[in-house]
Fold each of these.
Amino acid sequence: MTAVTPRGAKPQKALSPRNIMLYGALVIFSLYYLLPLYVMIVTSLKDMAEIRVGNIFSAPVEITFQPWVKAWSEACTGINCDGLSRGFWNSVRILIPSLIISVSVAALTGYVLACWRFKGSEVFFGILLLGAFIPYQVLLYPLVIILRELGLFGSLWGLVLVHTVFAMPINVLLFRNYFVALPEELFKAARVDGAGFWGIFFRIVIPMSLPIFVVSGIIQVTGIWNDFLFGVVYTRPENYPMTVQLNNIVNSVQGVKEYNVNMAATLLTGLVPLVVYFFSGKLFIRGIAAGAVKG
């Protein structure tokens, strides 16, 4: 009887020097990034008397959620003392239409540029990509004039329009590159079966494109929710998004500096992008790997 020779790579020990160095480095980097979050959380759960003792790394002796309540509904910015709640709902009203419109238009534009190319489509795509390299500061004043002429300056819909326009270059690039990688035979077969422009888009392209929609959605959610520049320039105080209100609370020069309230307000402002990343992280990686680097 002939002895079977094992094939393949030789199994490595779980605690080999290489693995110990690798996991040790990962633990150190993780602690480096998580330490500020830990400080913010424990500080937001202390009262001011405990914060004044000075040890920012110590856990709270007596946990209190009053700073979170005050950050949400009682913190003052100027004459308004309604906390972040008004800014939160303003951000929601800006985010939802901006997300739906920008992703829909970008997906449709990417579909046309990938599957229904026309004369000059590559030139149009190149010009569109140039928009991604133009500094925002250059366009601030022209956009003020455009929004004023449209009667949208200071309103939430003006900010929705701004976010939609600025989202086009990168999102069209994502969708166009993803759609180019889809099998061309599918579209030919669909056209033989009588499917037209919209039939192919809704029945074939969209069902196969969930990962890239997730990638585009995450980019838009984080970009719109974390925006400060457009929010402070193109809206009025009653329509300020959450990030602008956070800045006003943290940089308030009136009264005592309440670090626990500031930390709680910062965590509340970052909660939406954090939840989105937490629940859609795997799809985000799949979408980036599947289409964002192709084309």
Amino acid sequence: MTRRLAVVSAGVGTPSSTRLLADRITDAVRSQVGARGEDVHVDVIEVRELAAALATMTTAGGLPIAEVERAQEIVRHADGVVAVTPVFSASYAGLFKMFWDTFDPDDLDSVPILIGATAGTPRHSLVLDHALRPLFTYFRMRVVPTGVFAATEDFGAGAGGDQLARRIGRAAVELAALMVATPDAVEGFVPTGRPDRGDGFNVTSITPFTRLLAGHDGD
């Protein structure tokens, strides 16, 4: 069976350390999925190539634009997602956020995702947990426990490079396991465990105050 992996890279230059990290993660995930007897089809989305379309879509009230919709479809139908962004001003890149802002919160429910970030210094490594992880938790995606942060020095040889390789390997194992996981029940035949969401206005069962206050005499 062929699994679909969507890779979202938000690097702004060429060559890009963000794209380099995304490629290394992709190779590791492909290897791990292959080790489980599955093939992988990879689609790479370079967000900077969508910059003009995203700006138009954002300022035109969600006007549909074909190239953005194609990218959205790739992500919606993926068995797993790798999302990597450079760090600007202690958070993800603006273009990266613009791309994810085009999705409805229900579009990506339960999709496994591996998050990664690059920066010039290790001081920004917490961006994974204070910015990226909350963003994808909002979409109810399944964020793998291991995030991959790479400072400039980590791309070289030595201790930093070895640690980066280990983080990539561990995160790839976690994502691959989710991508090839087989559901243990047939959709629609068992409860999903997810409560139905309402808008809070169509309330059909209200307990009257006279019943709630029955027996109270005001003392």
Amino acid sequence: MPASRWDVFCSVVDNFGDIGTCWRLARQLAGEHGLNVRLWVDDLASFRRINPAIDPDQDVQRSRGVEVRRWLTPFPAVTPQEVAAVVLDTFACTPPEAYLRAMAACEPKPRWVNVEHLSAEDWVAGCHGLPSPQPGLPLTKYFFFPGFTAGTGGLLRERGLLEARRAFQGDAVAQAEFWAGLGLPPAHGELRLSLFAYDCAGVVPLLRLWERSARPLRVLVPEGALARRIGGHYGVAEAAAGAVLGAGALTVHVLPFVEQDRYDRLLWACDVNFVRGEDSFVRAQWAGRPLVWQPYRQAEDAHSDKLRAFLHRYCAGLGVQEGAVLRDLWQAWNREEGMAPHWDGFLAHRAAYTVHAELWARQMADLGDLAANLVAFCRQGKAR
């Protein structure tokens, strides 16, 4: 087992969050840390939506320095010699049984790490790095938690990302070229918002609110369920990529899914970003712009705990009024309530939120990036 070989397993559950995070992690491990990375994915069609270079019909292919493998069911037989030195199962997806048996036969045993979901809850730091001996197997799995505080794994962030973002935001020509590449006019005098969210009824009253805005608004939404709901509001049966909708002060453009680097630039270029889940949520934090987060809905309302925990940390650096307005708006969005009582206040504090977003990005960068922290953790040879 050469120490440079890493296997990353990804089971796609909610289409883009799982593979989005895994792909960023895999390519960063290969590109910045010189590791020989195999990324096992059970849904290459979803993967292709964010990486057009992927061929869903190929079982083995390479992209950006990563060997991409189809995660077949049943999984083919594996010898101990084929097992990587470090095995990552992401979001508790667990490698296939044949691979686990081969891991158990290895000497020395591979480093097995479960990269967990992101949460700002207090218990995360206490569980980060804990070992979990596996019943019936001579293997120990370790838990690795992304997070927002010292003592966690931090957030995914590529080398030079913040410098690239700041350069882009200070370059009017680069921004104009970016908008032209999307087929959109330059953003003169209008508010631009990216809207990436799970399908929710709350978007319709929000559209009505924006239609009555005193300032022109241009909203950019990716194709999918939310775009279809928006299309339904405007009497369009199928709001596919390229559709232009809206009324009053509001213009909505339905965009195709774009690859990750281009999505980053969309977040950098917009004035406000609505994001969902984990991957776009993290990228919006690096964008240095006001954001509105919709966590992935979980059983027993567990996502509400995540929302409150993040708001508690994020709003700590804001003034009392700015923090209260932000909390009320985010919670109204996630409860699918009307946002009219909160939107004007949010816009009134937009400059303060922009300053705070930059400070927050610097604080998060001080934690180190998740890939580098993960490499250091695996090279320690022990949990803590």
